[in-house]
Structures are given as C-alpha cells and as structure tokens.
Design goal:
Blueprint (H helix, E strand, L loop, with lengths): L15 H4 L8 H4 L12 H15 L14 H4 L6 H26 L2 H19 L5 H15 L2 H12 L2 H12 L1 H23 L5 H23 L12 H9 L15 H9 L1 H19 L4 H7 L4 H7 L1 H21 L2 H21 L5 H11 L3 H14 L3 H23 L2 H8 L11
Length: about 450
C-alpha cells in the first residue's frame, strides 16, 4: 500500500500536507476489503505460477513503433531545404508538449483503457499520414503522432511497477522497449518489400503511403487487442481467479509502492521537482538523445552515405533493430540477475562507442565494416531503458512517479529535437566529410 514519504510508524508529529492524505488508500486496499485478519501466504511455487501467467498475458502487448521512411515522400509532398528535418522533429514537439498532461491522465484514468485509446488513435493518425499532400499537413500529422505516442512509454513503465517485483522489472522493461527494435526489423522488411514491388510492378499510390497505411492499420489492431485483453490492474484481470488477484497484489507488496492511486498529491510533485535524482535522470536523457536525434532517427540517410541505395537502406537497416533487441534483453536479464542494472547496462554504451569508432576510423571504401559499426551503435539504448526501469522501481508515490517519468521523457524529446538540427554536421563527421545524402525521389 502506498504510504506518503515522511509518514513514520513511530510517534511524532506528521506534516499537515501529508496527514490530509492519511485515508487516501492505494487501489490495492480494494482487493483486501472484507478480508481483514486473513493471512495470505505466497509460496515459491505459487509465485512462479502467477509470474508465468502474468508474463503470458502482459508481455505480448508491448508497444508497436513504426519505421518512418523516405521512399519518395520529399518529392510527393514538395519538401525543400530543411522541411523534412522539421517534419521529423515535429513528432518530438508533440511528444514534449503532451508528455506531462498524458502522465496525469495515466494516473487519473483507467491505465489500460487510456493506453489503448492512445494506441488506437496513434494508428489512426499514422493512416492519416498516407493522405498528406503538403508540408503543413505533414507537420500537423507528425505533431499528433507525438501527442498520442507520449502515453506509451510511461504507461508501460507503470504496468511494470504494478505487476512485477523490483528484481523482475528490468527484464520486463527491456522486453517492452525492445519492441522498438522489432518494429525496425519488420517495418524495414515491409517497407523494402513495398518499395521493390512498386518499382517492379508499379502501384496505384506512392509506396510510402502504402507503408503508413499498413503500419497504421496494424497499430490500430494491436490497440484493439490491448483494449480487450489488458487489465487496468490486478483487480480487473479477467484471466486471474478472484483469489489469484489478491495473490498477484500480495506478490508485489515487497515493492512497498502499491498498484496505483488516482489522486494528485501536491507534496509528491514538490518532492519530484526538488529531488536531485530527478534532474540527474533528465540530464542523461537530454545528452544521450542528442546523438539519437541526429543519427539514429536519420539512419537511412547514414546508410546511403555508405554507398547503398535508398531502397537498400530500408533492408540493411533491419539488423540494427536486432542488435537493439538483443542488447536490451541481455542487459535487462543480467541486471536483474545480479542486482546492478546501471553497471551492466553501461556495456551497451561501450559497444555503441566501438561502433562509432569503426564508422569514423575505417576507410571510406570499407562500406561493410562501417555498416557493421552502425549496427553496434544501436546497443546504446540500454542505459536509457535501465534508468526508465529504475523510475518504475525506485520512485514511490504515484504522483511523484508519473512526474519523474514525464520530466525524463520531456528531456528525451528535447535531446532528439536538438540532435535533429546537428544532423548534417554529425553525418558529415561520420562519413569523412561527405555531403549528407538527400532523398528527392
């Protein structure tokens, strides 16, 4: 059950700001209403049975992200100069603008239902991207893509803190965040197949429009499944028997965080803003995602600079997603196993630095080696995801947890926005002074 920080069991005065929330119990209390005095014992076999069942029903609904590609989009919607750069970064402006409000809504509204709504509308907006005809339309659609994706990452962090113990959370956050890598793999394969098919056989509409329609409809389908099967918390998990619901809450008692509280608490907001750890998280997200905004978000252009065609860049970008998936799974598992997520996740940064050295140091003629270097850079999200899991694990109080998560992800957006405006310089450095490629067809 969630207890406000500073509320002690020994005698003494309690600050009025905290005392007024004394009867504002966590949602977990509802499961135990009418069962006062009943002792629940959770043995190891039952715990493993519940964990297996929870994984089976929660893990398949990881976030689905999409691959933004440039198969003729510049020409079709008449982009010139830095227009494509602005359209790409507009996603993060929408994400940034709505991140704090959406975290408040994640706390206030049923978690699964609000998350499902955002995923479904996110898919609908993706489909709208297929109908964009000009620069202003592209800006508007990309902004709203950011708005509705803003709920996905903090939402899954909250699901993790609700259902899993601290020693289980690093692996699960890694699995969920790894769906971004799977999206890059399957998105790249879909985009390549559509581009090649259109080139060989022609198509009624531009290939990039088909990609957005396919990924948008798939995202909407996933959102509908999420709405049907994902519970808001243990209390309405239809795939758990009533007694098992209480056991599922009991097994996370060790977290000492409860499973959620719908009410905004000002003292927790103040704690989040005055906690130096909050701003340490924010500083890392800001600085670490500047390279992400400048390189990873424009990876197709970087691959083309290695001597490959725009069409080939869609296919050759897919192994980068596999590297991200493997790095997140390995670091998440080992971090939980040995109880040191940060130290182990730093290995991903070491691998990424090695990749950058290969890109810069290898001869320009060694396209394969430099492409392999790019793949290694995709191990870099490991520390970002470890910190996200630590927010789920270590930040108590629902208002404080959602506030810290919002600040962390706002900083992530700011880093990506800054990075997008250093894109040309970064790619120029990585390509040995070659001009950053431009897709005009």
């Amino acid at each position: 059950m969630e207890r406000p920080p500073g509320c002690q069991e020994h005698r003494g005065s309690v600050p009025a700001e905290i005392a007024k929330h004394a009867n504002d119990a966590d949602e977990a209390m509802k499961a135990f209403a009418g069962h006062e005095g009943v002792l629940l014992e959770l043995d190891e076999a039952t715990n493993k049975r519940l964990l297996k069942r929870i994984d089976l029903h929660l893990m398949p609904y990881g976030p689905f992200d999409t691959l933004i590609n440039v198969m003729g989009i510049k020409k079709d919607i008449h982009l010139t100069g830095d227009d494509y750069q602005w359209i790409s970064s507009m996603f993060y402006f929408g994400y940034l603008a709505w991140e704090y409000p959406t975290n408040r809504l994640l706390q206030r509204l049923p978690l699964a239902k609000y998350s499902s709504f955002c995923i479904i509308v996110w898919g609908l907006v993706l489909c709208c991207m297929a109908g964009v005809k000009n620069y202003s339309g592209g800006l508007a659609v990309r902004f709203f893509l950011g708005v509705f994706e803003a709920a996905v990452t903090p939402g899954f962090a909250l699901f993790t803190s609700q259902w899993y113990t601290k020693r289980e959370q690093g692996t699960r956050v890694g699995i969920w965040f790894g769906f971004n890598g799977w999206a890059q793999i399957f998105g790249g394969l879909i985009a390549y197949a559509i581009a090649k098919g259109a080139r060989l056989h022609g198509s009624a509409i531009a290939p990039w429009r088909i990609v957005f329609l396919v990924t948008g409809l798939l995202t909407m389908a996933i959102g509908i499944l999420f709405l049907i099967f994902m519970p808001d918390n243990q209390l309405n998990a239809r795939w758990l028997k009533p007694f098992d619901r209480r056991l599922a809450i009991e097994r996370v008692r060790v977290n000492q965080q409860g499973i959620g509280n719908k009410h905004f608490k000002l003292y927790q907001l103040k704690e989040a803003l005055l906690d130096p750890t909050t701003w340490a998280f924010a500083f890392y997200a800001l600085t670490a995602d500047i390279p992400n905004g400048g390189i990873t978000n424009f990876f197709s252009q970087l691959i083309v600079s290695f001597g490959y065609t725009a069409e080939e860049s869609l296919l050759y970008g897919t192994p980068a997603g596999a590297v991200e998936v493997v790095a997140l799974l390995v670091c998440g598992y080992l971090g939980d196993r040995y109880g040191n997520r940060l130290l182990i996740s730093m290995s991903g940064l070491v691998v990424a630095i090695l990749g950058m050295i290969l890109i810069v140091a290898l001869p320009l003629s060694n396209n394969g080696g430099r492409l392999a270097g790019f793949y290694l850079t995709q191990a870099s999200p490991t520390l970002f995801v470890a910190l996200l899991s630590l927010i789920a694990t270590n930040v108590a109080g629902y208002t404080k947890k959602t506030t810290v998560a919002a600040i962390y992800l706002i900083s992530y957006c700011a880093g990506n926005i800054i990075g997008s405006y250093f894109r040309r310089g970064l790619i120029k450095i990585l390509t040995g002074g070659c001009r950053a490629p431009d897709f005009s067809a």
